[in-house]
UniProtKB/TrEMBL annotation, chain A:
Source species taxonomy: Bacteria, Bacillati, Actinomycetota, Actinomycetes, Kitasatosporales
Highest taxon listed in the record's lineage: Bacteria
Chain intervals with Basic and acidic residues compositional bias: 1-11
Region (Disordered): 1-23
Pfam families: DUF742
Identification of the protein by name: DUF742 domain-containing protein
Species per Swiss-Prot/TrEMBL record: Streptomyces violascens
Coiled coil ranges: none
PANTHER family per the UniProt record, alphabetical: DUF742 DOMAIN-CONTAINING PROTEIN (PTHR36221)
TrEMBL record, chain B:
Protein name (Swiss-Prot/TrEMBL): histidine kinase
Biased composition (Low complexity): 385-399, 435-463
Organism: Streptomyces violascens
Domain Histidine kinase/HSP90-like ATPase, chain residue ranges per copy: 229-340
Keyword entries, A-Z: Kinase, Membrane, Phosphoprotein, Transferase, Transmembrane, Transmembrane helix
Compositionally biased intervals (Basic and acidic residues): 357-384
Length: 115, 473
């Protein structure tokens, strides 16, 4: 940090998580895709709001951590809170070789456009 | 005239002698007189004898009295002269004494003045030394908090992170104590924030500095922000009020914080369900936080809080008052004047996290709006959002992220297909995968950057969480 204490945020990480340092759940690993299930409501923690806004489209945990500028462990705690209240859901990525061939997808796209 | 016995007795004696002598003479004369004249002679001699006796008595008495009076006069004269001498001596004494007293008084005043001056300079020196030491402690605490934050970002292990968070909390409390001493000794406040701090961060920043922060419940929907120059003071004052509330309520009771916007500014209410303060205590507390007296004499080592709040209130124009709380304890109200309040624009909601995500989120929102309007957004929002990004070392990386992600948004509008939208992280991790071509080629440098960052994350957690891409490698 170039100028300590000047540009960082006054929030300490333990106030974000209420003092917890472990999520107590392994629903989220680094590449779990997170999807928002409900809109943010007033009075929510700003990080939760940010996650819910960010995850309208599936987003990986590690990406969320990078966007929020928070350690992954802290993000996993926040995500577990949201997951426990049903506001987000977790999708584990399928491995790449089982995805449909991009050529087929492209043909489908062309076909749809031709309709 | 009262005749003393000493006067009466010689007078009576003279009367007696005269009476006897004249009586004898009369008797002789009467006997010697002719029988014809005997009666006349007898009466006249008798009368003469009585008169003589009375005269003798009067003369004797007055002579004696004269003598007595004269002696008394002499005695009185002697007394008077003695007293005069005495008085003269006394006045001389008094003059001498006065001079001595004046000299003594002067010496005493001089001694007191010197003593006072010495005490004053000792006080000033002690105060300056304390302020200096407090400032250094503040700097140490601030540096340590920054170091801890760095470490918290570096270590993904939950055990290590837990310990770091614990240390972080301790250091924050130590920093608050140093801040308190600095405030009381009139030193500069510890930190200055370069930008307005949103209410949520103010509340959490205050809450993080007290021991029982886990009992604090925040209820705030306010989007107000506190001006940077006052943010530290407001946080500190609020932390002291929270600490009071937490300390004077049962160890399991919650402390509730409410934020309310009023025409005069913003009111932050701290309510506990602890002890109810009596009228006298409420008055004393209000006196302490009024900031009217800057005297350090009433301080005790364990109760610095309210005096600190008073100083800060005076400095930043805060108004603090106390009232019984509906929760059964005491409620402390802090009014932040509207000069200290700014409102962040809804287009760029300021969150508690550092600047980059905010800028990015703003871009994301604008991009979405732009997508709906079918307008290319970059040209319009890029210059506006750029200055909002942080000035730290991460700016360049953040710029990459936001440029890349915002660059990806319009693609959704065109195709509508890829629900997998930003598989950016995955694409970076699997450049050989089928997603790789989807990543735009103009962002290739950013993608490699992201890949490097992602691989370091992967390195960090691979030990305790086996990940899918770990299997593929």
């Amino acid at each position: 940090m170039s100028r300590p204490g000047r540009d960082d945020s006054p929030d300490r990480l333990y106030t974000l998580t209420g003092g917890r340092s472990r999520s107590g759940s392994d629903a989220f690993d680094l590449v779990t895709l997170v999807v928002t299930e409900s809109d943010p409501v007033p009075g929510m923690q700003s990080e939760h709001v940010a996650i819910l806004r960010m995850c309208r489209f599936p987003t990986a945990v590690v990406e969320i951590a990078a966007e929020l500028g928070l350690p992954v462990t802290v993000v996993r705690i926040l995500l577990t809170d949201l997951h426990d209240t049903g506001r987000v859901s977790a999708r584990h990525p399928r491995s790449a070789h089982r995805l449909p061939d991009p050529d087929i997808l492209e043909q489908v796209l062309v076909g749809l456009r031709n309709l | 005239m009262t005749a003393s016995p000493s006067l009466t007795r010689p007078s009576a004696l003279a009367l007696l002698i005269t009476a006897v002598v004249t009586g004898a003479f009369c008797t002789v004369s009467v006997v010697a007189a002719t029988p014809g004249t005997r009666a006349v002679v007898g009466w006249s001699l008798g009368a003469a004898a009585a008169l003589l006796s009375a005269g003798a008595y009067a003369v004797t008495h007055s002579v004696l009295r004269n003598r007595v009076l004269r002696s008394r006069l002499a005695a009185l004269n002697g007394q008077i002269s003695a007293q005069e001498a005495n008085a003269a001596r006394r006045s001389a004494d008094a003059v001498r004494l006065d001079a001595a007293q004046a000299a003594e008084r002067k010496a005493l005043i001089a001694a007191h003045t010197a003593e006072l001056r010495r005490a004053e300079s000792a006080r000033a020196a002690a105060l300056a030394a304390t302020a200096n030491a407090a400032g250094r402690m503040q700097a140490l605490a601030t540096g340590m908090l920054a170091d801890l934050r760095d470490m918290e970002h570096r270590h993904a292990d939950e055990e290590v992170l837990g310990d770091l968070l614990h240390l972080d909390h301790r250091t924050a409390q130590a920093g608050r104590l140093a801040d308190s001493i600095a405030v009381l000794t009139g030193a500069r406040s510890g930190r200055r924030w370069a930008r307005p701090i949103v209410m949520e961060s103010i509340l959490r920043g205050a809450m993080g500095r007290i021991g029982g922060y886990q009992r604090v419940r925040l209820h705030s929907t306010s989007d107000a922000a506190v001006a940077g120059h006052a943010a530290e003071g407001v946080m500190h004052a609020l932390a002291e009020l929270l600490d009071n509330a937490a300390n004077f309520s049962p160890p399991t009771a919650e402390v509730h914080v409410y934020v309310e916007e009023v025409p005069a500014g913003v009111i932050i209410t701290v309510e506990d369900s602890g002890l109810v303060m009596s009228e006298v205590q409420l008055r004393r507390a209000e006196q302490a936080v009024s900031g009217r007296s800057l005297d350090l004499a009433g301080l005790s080592g364990t109760r610095l809080g309210l005096a600190v709040v008073g100083r800060l209130a005076r400095k930043h124009g805060l108004t603090v008052s106390f009232r019984p709380s509906a929760r059964g304890g005491t409620g402390a109200l802090m009014l932040l004047p509207h000069e200290l309040i700014t409102h962040v624009t809804p287009a760029a909601p300021t969150t508690g996290v550092p600047q980059e995500p905010k800028a990015r989120e703003a871009k994301a929102q604008k991009a979405q709006e732009a997508r709906e309007a079918d307008v290319e957004p970059e040209a319009t929002h890029e210059p506006a959002a750029e200055p909002a990004t942080g000035t730290g070392a991460t700016t360049a990386a953040a710029g990459d992220i936001s440029a890349e992600t915002s660059g990806e948004f319009p693609q959704f509008g065109e195709s509508g297909l890829p629900r997998r939208k930003r598989g950016r992280a995955l694409a970076a991790a699997h450049p050989e995968g089928p997603d790789a071509p989807a990543a735009p080629s103009r962002a290739s440098t950013a993608a490699s950057d992201a890949a490097a960052r992602f691989s370091s994350f992967r390195q960090a957690v691979r030990a305790n969480s086996p990940t899918p891409e770990g299997n593929t490698e």
